[in-house]
Design a protein that fits this description.
Chain lengths: ~260, ~280
């Protein structure tokens, strides 16, 4: 046994993408876990920003919602939501955005809107939230999500947020000047867009994962880099930070004793 | 000037059938008690707007109060779906629901434009995003100075805005602290506004000169409802009841379970049930 779960290596590998110099717009769920593991280990001075308006927040437990009180109580400052989206995000003050998705395609475009057609949805997903403008206004985008044929699809049911569009220079042609997705971290591997075509290419496998496994969990014919790296396994200290964080979080979100 | 009223009076006098209404609160200070009163008074044909419709909009939609929803993220935060919203969109139950779907940035800008008295908001948004293909309320405009193409969305000017805040003073001025969301903009853009508060105090005491205050003359009615934001939270008073949000997954999933729960916990109750959740956070 490896001593860690696929979810743990995914979260820790994602956390390693961040440094103390980053100003990072944090999505809820997996991105929030990764960003706080970074802050609690190798990137103590990272500025984490949540769309509820909290700037430089240092939550002791992971928030269940994007606006838990913990985020405000531990923030340097809390601004209104219009100010957050106008001055800070649109104003170009945020260099990294950390997102997740319900569906992702080979150019790292994101669907969080609908499964099925928009007019006759099979499943209505929660929707865009902040993602369309996070995806285009942050300097670059990191995506963390578990990999399966259902989530890594050949064709999105709906393009909620722009990744690399149709590939190549499609982002620029749509008037977007930021880099877009630079890495996708899953529970199996790490992918990066090809420098020219922008198609996602596997550049590192997590220890013990085979290319066949990754291909099998992907809805398109996935490309692999010629010189595949292996992700460094989680270190004991990283695992401790992550597990302690989840433990504190579970304790905090336990149902209260019956009243 | 704001009048001090009971919750039943405030809803009766300020929220009409067919209104465009914003019950706002960005995961914080969500006006649960006020929504429950609107449901008890059986408001119909409402056009709801909110950035993050959560449990209260699930409840209004499932009880058949709503004809249209303008929103940017409709889920149960950290838990999953809003099953009543989904049932309305996917199966037209209990009635068809028209949706006007946006991004957070667009709606935040739209609220601000409403407060500023402008007809529309513009933003550098929706680039490469498919919502602009399915929502005719997302248009493109060209900057007259630089030629840059920008997105435009209609301003939000509600008939009625409903929010919850920590405090009102004896004159009806309202103080909001913590995560502010778009409440100030929603109220200033609305024709009428109802504010429920944790407590009415003689004066606010020592607060920052830059505090978020809505003067009494911007508000129609102030109602003291301690605990009125439960199961969301009131910064400085009580914490978010995350267990309730998790429990809603099972309550909201099935129509009959939902209706029974609403009958027992909303239709047969009054705003006093929120009192037990009130209190200052330790």
């Amino acid at each position: 046994m490896s001593g860690y779960t696929p979810n743990e290596i995914m979260t820790i590998a994602a956390a390693r993408e961040l440094t103390s110099d980053d100003v990072c717009f944090v999505g809820i769920g997996l991105p929030s876990a990764a960003c706080n593991v970074a802050r609690l280990s190798h990137a103590p001075d990272i500025t984490l920003i949540y769309e509820s308006g909290t700037i430089a927040t240092k939550p002791n437990v992971l928030p269940l919602s994007i606006g838990d009180g913990e985020l405000c109580e531990t923030a340097l400052v809390t601004v209104s939501v219009p100010e957050m989206f106008r001055y800070w995000l649109q104003g170009g003050r945020i260099n990294k955005g950390f997102l997740s998705a319900a569906q992702l395609d080979r150019f790292a475009n994101i669907n969080t809107t609908v499964i099925g057609s928009y007019d006759r949805p099979k499943v209505k997903l929660p929707g865009a939230g902040g993602a369309p403008e996070i995806a285009t206004s942050c300097g670059e985008i990191l995506i963390v999500m578990a990999q399966s044929k259902r989530s890594f699809v050949d064709k999105l049911d709906f393009v909620t947020s722009l990744g690399h569009g149709k590939g190549g220079d499609d982002r620029q042609r749509q008037g977007v000047t930021t880099k877009g997705p630079t890495k996708v971290i899953t529970d199996l591997c790490v992918m990066e867009p090809d420098p020219e075509t922008k198609e996602l290419t596997v550049t590192a496998l997590h220890p013990g994962v085979t290319p066949e496994q990754v291909a099998h969990a992907t809805g398109w014919s996935l490309k692999f880099a010629a010189d595949l790296d292996e992700t460094e396994p989680p270190r004991a200290a990283e695992l401790k930070v992550l597990r302690d964080l989840h433990h504190r979080t579970n304790e905090a979100h336990q149902p209260k004793a019956a009243q | 000037m704001a009048v001090f009223a009971s919750l039943a009076e405030a809803i009766r006098d300020n929220l009409k059938d067919g209104d465009l209404v914003a019950f706002e609160g960005f995961t914080h200070l969500i006006p649960f008690a006020a929504v429950h009163e609107a449901i008890r008074q059986r408001r119909r044909d409402l056009w709801l707007v909110r950035m993050t419709p959560d449990l209260i909009y699930d409840q209004l939609i499932g009880m058949g109060c709503v004809r249209k929803l303008t929103f940017s993220w409709g889920g149960n935060p950290g838990v999953g779906s809003l099953h009543r919203l989904r049932d309305a969109v996917e199966n037209n139950w209990p009635r068809p629901l028209e949706i006007d779907e946006h991004s957070h940035a667009a709606l935040a800008n739209a609220y601000e434009a409403g407060a500023a008295g402008l007809p529309f908001a513009m933003l550098r948004g929706y680039r490469g995003a498919q919502l602009k293909e399915v929502n005719p309320n997302i248009k493109e405009i060209t900057c007259p100075f630089t030629g840059e193409k920008l997105a435009a969305v209609p301003a939000i000017r509600a008939d009625c805005a409903v929010i919850h805040a920590q405090k009102a003073d004896r004159k009806g001025n309202v103080l909001i602290e913590g995560i502010l969301g778009v409440q100030k903009e929603a109220v200033l853009g609305a024709k009428r506004a109802i504010v429920t508060v944790e407590e009415i105090v003689p004066d606010f005491g020592a607060i920052s000169p830059n505090a978020c205050i809505l003067p009494s003359w911007t508000v129609s009615a102030v109602v003291e409802v301690p605990g009125g934001a439960h199961p969301s939270y009131a910064h400085g008073y009580y914490k978010r009841d995350n267990a309730y949000y998790k429990a809603w997954e099972d309550i909201g999933r099935e129509r009959d379970v939902f209706l029974k729960w609403m009958d027992e916990n909303v239709m047969r109750k009054g705003p006093e049930v929120f009192q037990r959740h009130a209190g200052r956070a330790a």
